[in-house]
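User: quick one, fold this
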Amino acid sequence: MLPRALALAAIVVLLDQLTKWLILTEIMVPPRPIEVTGFFNIVLAFNRGVSFGLLASDYAWKPYLLAGLALVVVALLLYWLRSQRGWAPTVAVGLIVGGAVGNIIDRFLHGAVVDFLDFHVAGWHWPAFNVADTGIVCGVGLLLADSLFGAARDDT
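Assistant:
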């Protein structure tokens, strides 16, 4: 299970970093909101905090602290996965680890996480996010569904 989770994590990291590279070097030069649909824009945002910009600050040490905490979570998830069976925990941990590593890379490269997906309705904008965040949310959702309903369990 661990090799499969790590392979999925690598795919998530590659997609995440590729999309962020395209945003930073091609699409957002110069930075400006790009309206794609009536409910979706591409923007450029740097999240110096955690989820939804919570705990944001400009302290020089903050990206390293947040990256260190994320690495601890990654290590704990990978250790936990060793005792799990079934495809759902494998896929979930792969998505979460890939997303966490993608955002860790950003913290070291940019001092913040690069966000660019902006969904909105009636003037209300969901906080901008990225491919790594999507992996984390989908992975957590799958873990919750599997733990609550167990329908995704099998012995593969």
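User: anything notable?
Assistant: The chain has four helices and four strands.
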